[in-house]
Amino acid sequence: MSSTRRRVQAFKVKRAFGDVVEGVALVSREGFSPRYDLDRWSGLISRPGHALEGQNLKDKILITPSAKGGIAAGWAFYDIKAKGIAPKAFVFGVTNPVMVQGAVFAHITITEGWSRDPYALVKTGDVVRVDPRRRTVEVIERKERGEKREERGEKREERGKTPRARSLP
């Protein structure tokens, strides 16, 4: 009987608080401000030009290099949690005490600091587990990369647009 071992993709975080959660990753190389980047009525990233513009945070695991904002941003976590549109977790490269306080108060799992480059391990659409006690973020299921292209094509068709041809250099 042969067995195949699945290679686990994971990274450690320096600090973490909250419950163990699993969810679909929403990954960005751009920082996040709950006050300026988020529509706090819908859960959509609404700031024009943000890398995640149009994406919804609800029940996602947000992986981003930094938390932006101060006191007003901290209370926004409680606001989105009370409205039922909060992510399951924030996985920040760097955050600040106000954001941590806001997440703890809202009962949203939060982490800071990465042992490895998460962008090499996790892509938007992958299912990840955040375990604050073990201080790990682990990919537990990969999204099929071909599905993403199909979804984009379907969205273009819905809007009545066709993909633009790329010109060769």
Topology:
Elements: E1 9-17, E2 21-27, E3 60-66, H1 71-82, E4 89-94, H2 97-106, E5 109-114, E6 127-131, E7 136-141, H3 145-159
Helix pairs in contact: 1-2
Describe this entry's structure for a reader.
The radius of gyration is 17 Å and the shape is globular. It contains 3 helices and 7 strands; from the N terminus they run βββαβαβββα. It has one domain (9-159): Phosphohistidine domain (Glucose Oxidase, domain 1), CATH 3.50.30.10. By secondary structure, it is of the alpha/beta class. A 7-stranded mixed beta barrel has the order 1-5-4-3-2-6-7.
The residue fraction in helices comes out at 10-25%
Q: What number is the mean pLDDT?
A: 84
Task: Determine the number of helices (DSSP H or I, runs of at least 4 residues).
Answer: 3
Low-pLDDT regions: 1-5, 148-169
Largest sheet: 7 strands, mixed, barrel
Beta-sheet strand percentage? 25-35%
CATH class: Alpha Beta
Write down the Rg: 17 Å
Any idea how many domains?
Answer: 1
The named CATH superfamily: Phosphohistidine domain
**Run of helices and strands:** EEEHEHEEEH
Strand order of the largest sheet: 1-5-4-3-2-6-7
Cα(first) to Cα(last) distance is 52 Å
Gross morphology: globular
Q: In CATH terms, what is the fold-level topology?
A: Glucose Oxidase, domain 1
Structural class: alpha/beta
Let me know the number of strands: 7
Annotated CATH architecture? 3-Layer(bba) Sandwich
